[in-house]
Amino acid sequence: MRVFVTGSTGFIGSHVTQDLLAAGHQVLGMTRSQAGAESLRALGAEPHIGTLEDPASLTRGAEQCDAVIHTAFDHDFAHFVDNCHKDARAIAALGEALNGSQRPLLITSATPVGSPAPGEPADEDHFNSGHPNPRAASERAGEALLQRGLNVVVMRLSQIHDTVKQGLVTELIKHARQAGVSAYVDEGLNPWSAAHVSDTAQLYRLALEHHQPGARYHATAESHIPFHLIAQALSEGLGLPVVSVPADEAMAQFGWLSSFVGRNMSSNSSKTQARLGWVPTGPGLIEDLKGSFQRR
Fold this sequence. Notes:
It is built from twelve helices and twelve strands. It has 296 residues and is α/β, with parallel strands linked by helices. α3 packs parallel to α4 and α4 runs parallel beside α5. The model has no long low-confidence stretch (mean pLDDT 96).
């Protein structure tokens, strides 16, 4: 297939691009820069200049391809809510190009919006459209296209990692350095989930090749990592003390990260693995965290 990949030079999108090419697919990769275009050509992909802020550039790219994988996202967490709404507009623009066809559109979301109730792990077959995580806007946009008859698939991400980046944990590292401590909330027993970026890239390809329209898949290799283990790994890697913070002091300690740090962000992927034959084999989050500090 000829696949339009947004975010094709980003952390996840670049790995998706390489996995698609290795499997024999053609890639039209969106990038905003000439440097990005050169890197795509070096991989064997065709570049397409475009941005999330230019819906027409998204539509033009999607019109040229048999399928779309949308991984681009503005990760400026200071404007997270606005960026989630921007993502919803981008999904709508991609849908315009695919209207009236069954060409697949794989969009990206986050596992927490699949939680059936507070404190319960996210499930592939559940979508909480009113979930407080702003990323639910992406799935609502996808659901609107699905109701119009488009072939939409949702890829929900846990903390996606290697030794360079680790999802929200990368932001926690920055925060710990600034604060001088590595902290967790109360006992730090709230679990997070994670998957290695190479396994995640393979999952996108498997979903492209074997999906069911309307399906939701979880990029989750580790479903239950107690947060205090993450904080301990940061403490050891940064040489900082690890401390417990009461829940009513979380906002003062973590700022915007408090919306995530004390929450249950676990997710299951048993249905994803069974339905797509996905078998994650990459290193775990704590292992990659330790490796990231060794690189520094």
